[in-house]
């Protein structure tokens, strides 16, 4: 019954915001054109299509808002104007009652928050579609933030996902162009993404990994601060972490008042991003201003603070090498190399002509290089490259789409801090050093160090294994005898089959002669 009424509500909202017109306008069929004229009733919608879709998703509730946010990252699939508008979606969700929050914490951790903590703020400091956050103080005096999953979220998500799958299948059947957008695949990715966010232990693990990557001894603890996970107060529905103090990165006036070097802050943000991507292959993939703060404490002044670790990206060594070589080829305007990298990666069909792909890449990049470097958007270049790749049936890897979305966030954040930020100039030396370390003597030494523990176990065994192999009896004569025996057996089998074939042939001849004589 709930599903039926929910479907009716979705249809009502879709009609209210003229989403039917949005769908019909994408169907290239005479019947669709006729229906479109009827729907419009002689007038076009007042709001742009992206705005209508964004407002409709906000009206449908937090799950659809979250879906729109995820959809905005798929700029390789949806029109750019819609993607830009969907990126404006925010989780504006009222907090759920504090007594429910306390009950959820007690159910997850086995005791009430007033017992677990020395102090627990009943009023949440932040509330989003999936969870809300309360400040608290541990009995040892440490200040913490407690993230609590919204009650009943799993059931709500499952019901709305069922409807989304049905709608995606309907759209895919109705619109031929929609099949290229792969709506069912997008919903499947959203399903995985949502269920990952429902597991706060996973988020806590992401936080712990990122903190370790920028911890003491890494040589980069001065770049990024990540809260410490308080594991004894964590469960799948509760995530307790160190409370962080700072200024939101978007509040430039407060940053300047705290005597923070804004231009240096912009360059550091780019360095943090490329360090996560190319050194660690593990990056915070939700680096919008709401999740990034800057420390104003005297001992850590100007250091970035990362929050909200529900979305992270991972890259393999192959991905890192592919991206680094692509970026360097862009910097050097070596479009043939970019085309070769696409073909070598296997993401382009084998019958793709290298010259055609090179020409398409050149058409993407050359207009950007004619501008001053400070005006070039690396994220937009990557986006245009993904869009151009459709012509060549390139299957864009999900991790690279997530990377492109994060790069756009980082670049936008950096340009907001410093409008003259030259992202290319900041990134190029880092990528060149990374490639030098990877393929030079330093990289060889690092890989040998990594494999040393395995070789330390194998090397002592080599003399014994060599001696055992040399001391093994010569099995050559025995093998030759066995092969000779098999050869003779095969010959006997062949002769027997020849005799049987002759007998069968004679029998068939006699039978045919008898039948002929009888007739």
UniProtKB/TrEMBL annotation:
Cell inner membrane is among the record's keywords: yes
Pathway noted in the entry: Cofactor biosynthesis; ubiquinone biosynthesis [regulation]
Keywords on record: ATP-binding, Cell inner membrane, Cell membrane, Kinase, Membrane, Nucleotide-binding, Transferase, Transmembrane, Transmembrane helix, Ubiquinone biosynthesis
Residue stretches spanning the membrane: 496-515
Entries under Pfam families matching the protein: ABC1
GO biological process, one term: ubiquinone biosynthetic process
Family to which this protein belongs: Belongs to the protein kinase superfamily. ADCK protein kinase family.
Name of protein: 2-octaprenylphenol hydroxylase
